[in-house]
Input
Amino acid sequence: MQWWNRRSRNQKIGIGVVAALIVVGGIAGGGQDDEGPAETPETTIAASESTSADTLAPETTTTTAAPETTTSTTTTSTTTTTTTTTTTTTTTTIPEWSEPIVLTGSGDDVVDTEVPQNDIAIAAFTHSGSGNFAVVSYDADGDRIDLLVNEVGAYEGRRPINLLIGEEVAFMEISANGSWTIELQPIFYATQFVGSSVSGTGADVVVDPDPPSGASRLTITHDGESNVAIWVYSADDRDLLVNEIGDYSGTVLSIPGAILYDIEADGEWTMSR
Output
């Protein structure tokens, strides 16, 4: 049973490795020195005359070859590629359903009654004819869900819809001999069970905003001529508390966590705890 409201960015980086190779080579050359023999001076001594010859200084030639250095540099070009994967998340905001949807007509008809997001909702009915007034709900596949109203003559009352998963109302079939209205209301239009008691007249939907955690005793009264039936719902359970004809007064045990009461009656009723 439903209860009311029912990416990573992976970044891969390719990293290149840079390598450099430098080769340095050198070629050196050597020199050679040559020195010729010195001439021996020839001396002639005469009786009264002396002759001296010049001495030649050695001639030296030096050749130096400068070292020739060749530098060769090889560079490896590195390309870094970055791949980024981006995931886009789209957020859709669903407008809040806050205003009733009103349908009107006369006589027999079939109307679309799907509410936004198939929320739990309230269907409020009126009929001004003198004959039979009956309303049956159906899902989107045309399967019958519930007989919501079956009265004779003028009628005014409210019933809950979409309480159970798989029983979302899509259509209503109306049998009537007069004018009618259907008002689809958000669940917060329900009568509030605040404090120790709540009361009303005819068919109604009652919500307890602070449901008891455990089972609780309820004293129920009905002052009418027709059937009085009260279903109670929690988040995961439901129970039929009363199903009688005409006047009724009694105390029953309600289920733990009771949060919604679906009351079918033709007269005044009270619930006290």
